[in-house]
UniProtKB/TrEMBL annotation:
Belongs to the UPRTase family. It is an enzyme of class 2 (transferase). This is Uracil phosphoribosyltransferase. Its EC number is 2.4.2.9. GO terms for cellular component: cytoplasm. GO terms for molecular function: GTP binding; magnesium ion binding; uracil phosphoribosyltransferase activity. CDD domains: PRTases_typeI (cd06223). It comes from Streptomyces koyangensis. InterPro entries: PRTase-like, PRTase_dom, Upp_B, UPRT, UPRTase/APRTase. Binds 1 Mg(2+) ion per subunit. The magnesium is bound as Mg-PRPP.
Length: 211
């Protein structure tokens, strides 16, 4: 597994406002959208392309286009949904699958309540979107599901990661073709499994408290 922390002043600036507890939901959603576009630029560095010949108004030339099979973008509901538009803006040909996952806040165990995507992902590049990599339980389960379906190139785009979650991912996904792109690896997890300093509950801050 590879991890790439995007070190850029615009990313740091937007992330700081996202973390601020005074930031309201509409602003939070807008910033998450803008941030994911900046992260997506790095995350798609190895997106597969193929050569194409075109005519400019002046001459014939060779360029590239995104190749087939199309990449698959998979937001993990709920909070990952707030990253979808920003991602597909950069990857307009992508297909979109959905994974609904919830972390039990007392046991911190992740479970899946919905999955809609092709059963066969052989040869597909997959981009998983989830703002938070905390204990890593959610992302490890999601990535294992993609590998089970045959994906051979998986990139997880997360806004924030905890060192504990990164370590679990490295252990559980050793030797797998996985890259994590994030705006920050924070200090630690607290006793409730929340990232410190973090930004709180990403889903609640985007959409309100679910229960
Ligand atoms: O790394 P982990 O410890 O597994 O935690 C991270 C997960 O927790 C949050 O989802 P949550 O369960 O709150 O669902 P929600 O997006 O519907 O709020 C977050 O969006 C991740 O999916
Ligand atoms: O800090 C955290 C940890 C898990 N899920 C969140 O939304 N935030
Ligand atoms: Mg939540």
């Amino acid at each position: 597994m590879r991890i790439h922390v995007v070190d850029h002043p615009l990313v740091a600036h937007k992330l700081t406002t996202l973390r601020d507890k005074r930031t309201d939901s509409p602003t939070f959603r807008r910033l998450a959208d803008e941030l994911v576009t900046l992260l997506a630029y790095e995350a798609t560095r190895d997106v597969r392309t193929e050569q194409v010949d075109i005519d400019t108004p002046v001459a014939r030339t060779t360029g590239v286009k995104l190749s087939y099979p199309r990449p698959l973008v998979v937001p993990i509901l709920r909070a990952g949904l707030g990253m979808l538009d920003g991602m597909v803006r950069l990857l307009p040909t992508a297909e979109v699958g959905f994974l609904g996952m919830i972390r039990d806040e007392s046991t911190l165990q992740a479970s899946t309540y919905a999955a809609r995507m092709p059963e066969d992902l052989t040869g597909r590049q997959v981009y998983i979107l989830d703002p938070m990599l905390a204990t890593g339980g959610t992302l490890v389960a999601a990535i294992k599901e993609m590998i089970r379906r045959g994906a051979d190139d998986i990139t997880a785009v997360v806004l924030l990661a905890a060192p504990e979650g990164v370590e679990i991912m490295e252990r559980e996904l050793e030797g797998t073709p996985v890259t994590v792109v994030t705006a920050s690896v924070d200090e630690r997890l607290n006793e409730n499994g929340y990232i410190v300093p973090g930004l709180g509950d990403a889903g609640d801050r985007m959409y309100g408290q679910a229960d």
